[in-house]
Design a protein that fits this description.
6-stranded antiparallel sheet, 2 domains
């Protein structure tokens, strides 16, 4: 499905073209069928006569949005479950269709211009059909920008890579949000503490430099993990066993065991940063 769009170039020039949504994200071509680099910054679009398309809802011709989008792969259930909706409720209940099981979908978020909303598109990865295309509010976009618990558990404990390689990758993932970092350092004076792009850059400020590099890396991964973890939905013993198999080092395993035990017992975990 192609949508007729007006293209606003960084130079200030405008032209017309066609926008489509694929498993690779948004694709744009001008009237001469010349493809436009979707990663190019500063290109804005508006859909011409959006009411003529059945797939589009709540978009007007005056609405402009960025070409470049943030892309995710998720699972989508045809039948939504309202008990898993957001509060306030998601636009047209789209979030109720996200599930651990279901068809694979490609989701993209394109920032709307002069607006706090995002343009959400959902494409079926199997047949590339467009399932949804409509704006969502900023708080709704956050559910996609945040990893689900099972995504995070799987990425840490489901990897078959050696410890060192897995830890190195985890340390390069995005740092926890400020809300989580504030709780992490609560009651501890950390001079000039800043949030940087990655886990390693940010949490290295909290782990003493006199520890070995391997120990520091494991502590940073553990601290990042505590900002997101809840009681596992699977049997806690099975979960802990998977941790034991995954990591040979006793330090990270022991810390995870202790933290999960606190959660299960309903006990407030210790202030790890203060202990360090």
């Amino acid at each position: 499905m192609k949508f007729r769009v007006k293209i606003f170039l960084p130079s200030g020039d405008t032209k017309c073209g066609y926008l489509s949504y694929t498993v690779e994200g948004p694709k744009l071509a001008d009237d001469k069928d010349m493809k436009v680099n979707t990663h190019q910054k500063g290109i804005h679009l508006s859909i011409i006569n959006p009411s003529s398309y059945d797939q589009i809802t709540s978009i007007f011709e005056k609405d402009r949005f960025e070409l470049a989008g943030t892309i995710f792969t998720k699972k989508y259930s045809k039948k939504g479950d309202k008990k898993y909706d957001l509060y306030p409720p998601s636009t047209s209940g789209w979030a109720t269709h996200l599930s651990r099981e279901g068809k694979e979908i490609q989701v993209s978020l394109q920032k709307m211009i002069g607006d706090s909303r995002y343009l959400l598109s959902i494409v079926d990865r199997e047949d590339e059909s467009l399932i949804r295309l409509h704006p969502i509010r900023e708080y709704e976009a956050n559910i996609l920008l945040m990893e689900s618990d099972w995504d995070f558990y799987g990425r840490i404990f489901g990897s078959q890579e050696p410890d060192g390689e897995s830890l190195a990758k985890l340390l390069q993932t995005p740092a926890p949000p400020w809300s989580a970092l504030t709780k992490l350092v609560q009651g501890v004076n950390v001079p000039n503490f800043q949030r940087y792009e990655t886990v390693k850059e940010t949490l290295s400020q909290l782990v003493p430099e006199n520890y070995s590099e391997k120990t520091r890396e494991e502590l940073m991964v553990f601290l990042a993990w505590t900002t997101r973890v809840t009681i596992p939905t699977e049997d806690p013993l099975d979960y802990l066993e998977s941790v034991q198999k995954r990591f040979k080092s006793g330090l990270l395993r022991g810390l995870v065991f202790g933290h999960i035990h606190c959660l299960i017992q309903g006990v407030e975990p210790p202030n790890y940063v203060r202990i360090l």
